[in-house]
# Entry
Amino acid sequence: MVVLSEKSHPSLSNVPTIDLSCGKRGAVSELLVKACESHGFFMVRNHGVSQDLVKKMEMEAFRFFALPESEKEKVGPANPLGYGCRKIGLNGDVGRVEYLLLHTRASYPIRLSHAAKEYITAVRDLACQILDLIEEGLGLCDTKLLSSLLRDCESDSVFRLNHYPPCRDLSAPSPRYAIGFGEHSDPQILTILHSNETPGLQISLQDENWITIPPDPTSFCVNVGDALQVLTNGRFKSVRHRALANGFKPRLSMVYFGAPPLHSYLSPLPQLVNEEHPSLYRLFTWCEYKKATYSLRLGHNRLDLFRAHEPRMLIDKDL
Ligand code: GA4
# Structure
């Protein structure tokens, strides 16, 4: 178990909360753009996703994780999709978490797949609404470009249910937090996370201090993924984050990761590249990026390998 040192005293969150139903469309777009630039993370309220649907999904998820191990394993070992317990990804990363990772397009013969279908549609629509507003805020001409990638019938978006059972190490000095899901950035375009009322999510801004995001089951936590950092030529930040296991209560998070189709090309949008802001990244496909992601450890700074002037040795040789 990884135990955090006493020195790490996380500060409380100052991530923006944006009310999607308030004010003029232009004002909301502006707030979203600012939040993506300053924190890469923000909360959204009055998001239009029914609370009943959220509760139903959460209930089904808890029901799934309460099944005997043998039943959960029937979904298939996480490779990388499926049911996983403690093992994260394919390169030896571990955490105090059990999870179910599903492709949003696949149908699974498990009880929760019915609720999941409805829930995924609702959060994908929310992600698309946010992306459309962001593009308007950035003054881009094609304001449906990003959402069309998520809506594409070949979109590579995934849905993840994380269950962090109560976990603390009584032999360790206080605070006795254990890492549930280690530090990383999300590779996709946009992430929409819902968690129950148990805290655990932390983000790391430039100064390397951890900021705790307090849970709010009536809101969604939204964050910029690596692909959106590339598309905005580094103007938006894909911020590193982690989840701590709580010592007393189970934490459940339900996360939609909006991604483009595998064959989609990614590079900075032409309107965000100019003499003052030269292109920071080279052209690559989402498939290429995903392969790199899975060939490296969780916390690797993989975006650095796709910088405009980065030698491509690792990518060419190792993938
Ligand atoms: C982090 C974001 C998503 O949960 C995820 C994760 C994926 C996995 O658990 O299979 C990864 C991780 C995530 C980034 C680095 C690689 C891939 C585990 C891992 C060690 C589903 C994703 O797309 O990337």
About this structure: The pocket of gibberellin A4 is lined by residues 80, 88-89, 91, 93, 101, 158, 160, 184, 186-187, 257, 293-294, 298 (CB under 6 Å).
